[in-house]
Structures
1.
Amino acid sequence: MQEHWVTGDCWLGCERTGVPVIWLGPLQWDGQHAPVHACEPCLDRLKAQALAYFMQRRPVAV
Ligand SMILES: [Zn+2]
């Protein structure tokens, strides 16, 4: 994963703005697209959750 940090708003629930964030990918909802950005603490949380998923091979509750 190529990491490219920009200053922006975090989309993953911490509600921080004007912080270094990384683009995760497009969120598709009801035919619309939005760019999802995450700050480092949220990215770490997401990475840990993804790792748990890979290790356990089962869906993570959302
Ligand atoms: Zn965040």
Note: The longest strand covers residues 19-29.
2.
Amino acid sequence: MVKRATCHDCGTKEGQLHILGCDMERCPFCGNQLISCQCVYKKLRIDVSPGAWAYSHGLTDAQQKDWEKLLGDKGRIPFVLYPNLCAKCGTLWPEMFLVPDAEWKHYIEPQMQREMLCKACYKQVKAVSLRKAFQRIMGELTLEAKSSALAALASLKVPESQTRN
Ligand SMILES: [Zn+2]
Ligand SMILES: [Zn+2]
Ligand SMILES: [Zn+2]
């Protein structure tokens, strides 16, 4: 059974158009958020540089009408709810958690940085990355330094399974 979702911003039902001005509507020209993209100014050739009339006044009623016609001709994008899911294990609507930007970029490979991960998968990816870094460091050590590092690790009583590989 398919449940029809409701837009949390404008209240429209899935499959229908948002109310114009809804912050969830996508622009049919560029795919970005309709209320914040620049297509209206590009398409209507409106100058919005600082100091220009439109910069401080926004669209005139006539321009707004022209824009709505352009949107209509192009075909506005109806509301369809695409669920968030973990890009790794596929869990639907994973619990959100915060990772500092720098940390995220450090551990997540570039082409995956815009994806969403659940907490468990993030931990796993981070562990893989840490293990690689650890191996790289160990690879650069002299035999002597390596054995004293391993001895130091052993004295920390880290379980074998976490230090192997
Ligand atoms: Zn909406
Ligand atoms: Zn656009
Ligand atoms: Zn996951």
Note: The first helix runs from residue 39 to 43.
